């Protein structure tokens, strides 16, 4: 059985992420979306539990996609899935440089691990979780940026932020 791991911080999941996950789910028998919370990104908007829950709701319609989380290194996490391929999205040249470097480090830690890149769909190349957080802070319309199922939750969290 072919397995893809789609890692990310998903703070929160966007339609750009979902596009990559959906395309991976057509190529691989099984997709594991892993919410990583070891990253240097400080003070996330959502707790890891909230992020996992939002991703679960967003991927509920894809039967071969499951959601997990890890605070470890991706290269270590991937060891538990025999022959799994890490699938990541590439938006722009800046993503490429970072991902190329990450890939070299991951290869040092786990030489068995392969990473595949899917280029972002044109309409999502501008989209990132940080843009969504920024938009939410100003109470902008999030439709078309994140899955409909999680819009209310993001707006509610942004409201708490503004009040806090
Ligand atoms: P972000 O960069 O938005 O904070 P993550 O760190 O959660 O997102 O990224 C997880 C993966 O999803 C990375 O491989 C990243 O390149 C990819 N990704 C994020 N946004 C998009 C997008 N709009 N289109 C394609 N891939 C994306």
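^ structure tokens above, recovered residues below v
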């Amino acid at each position: 059985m072919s397995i893809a791991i789609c890692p990310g911080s998903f703070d929160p999941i966007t339609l750009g992420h979902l596009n990559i996950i959906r395309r991976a789910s057509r190529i691989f028998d099984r997709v594991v979306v892993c919410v990583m919370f070891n990253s240097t990104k400080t003070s996330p908007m959502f707790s890891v539990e909230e992020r996992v829950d939002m991703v679960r709701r967003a991927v509920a319609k894809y039967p071969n996609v499951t959601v997990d989380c890890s605070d470890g290194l991706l290269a270590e996490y991937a060891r538990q899935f025999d022959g799994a391929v890490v699938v990541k999205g590439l938006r722009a040249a800046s993503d490429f440089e970072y991902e190329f470097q990450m890939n070299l480090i991951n290869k040092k830690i786990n030489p068995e691990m392969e990473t595949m890149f899917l280029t972002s769909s044109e309409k999502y190349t501008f989209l990132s979780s940080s843009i969504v957080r920024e938009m939410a802070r100003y109470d902008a319309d999030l439709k078309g940026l994140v899955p409909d199922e999680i819009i209310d939750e993001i707006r509610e969290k942004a409201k708490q932020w503004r009040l806090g």
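The domain at 3-125 is CATH 3.40.50.620 (Rossmann fold).
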